[in-house]
Amino acid sequence: MSEEKSNNAYWSANIRLIVWSLVIWALVSFGFGILLRPLISGIAVGGSDLGFWFAQQGAILVFLALIFFYAWRMNRLDRDHGVDEQ
Description:
about 80% helix, two-stranded antiparallel ribbon, mainly alpha
């Protein structure tokens, strides 16, 4: 029974991490790049407005940062639950 609880805790933490990563990615790419663009269009970044920057470059940079964060956090989670690769 203890192994089942450990497995449930591991997968619960894994799913929570995936959901939060997807929420951040959706907020940045869809939220800032499309929905909130009129609100942030007055802020200039690199010769264009902030909404355009999020749609063209910001979402990609955030996505790359999320990939590295996810890999780092999953390695730590694997190690904490004893399922890491030696």
